[in-house]
Fold:
Amino acid sequence: MTPDDRTLHYFRTVYATGSIRAAARQLGMAPSAVSRKVAELERRLGASLLERSARGIRPTEAGDLLSWVIRLSALGLGCGWRR
Structure:
C-alpha cells in the first residue's frame, strides 16, 4: 500500500523543519496530529523514519532515503510508486 501525497508532505515538513512542533505550526495542525500521521506512515512502510528523543527528532537512514525519494518525485524523477 502506497502512502498518500498528503502524508508524505507531512513527513517532508517534519524532516525539513527538524521538529514536529515546527512542522505542525507550518501545516496549521496540532503537533499530536502530525505525530500520529508520521507514526502511521512508519507503520505502513514498516520502518522507523525518525529517532525521537527529549531533544527532538533526527531522521533515520530510512527517513533520509524517503525524503530523497519524495524530492525526486517532486522533480518528476520518481521511482515508479504510482505505476
User: Anything to note?
Assistant: The helical segments are 5-17, 20-27, 31-45, 61-74. The chain has a mean pLDDT of 89. The beta strands are 50-53, 56-59.
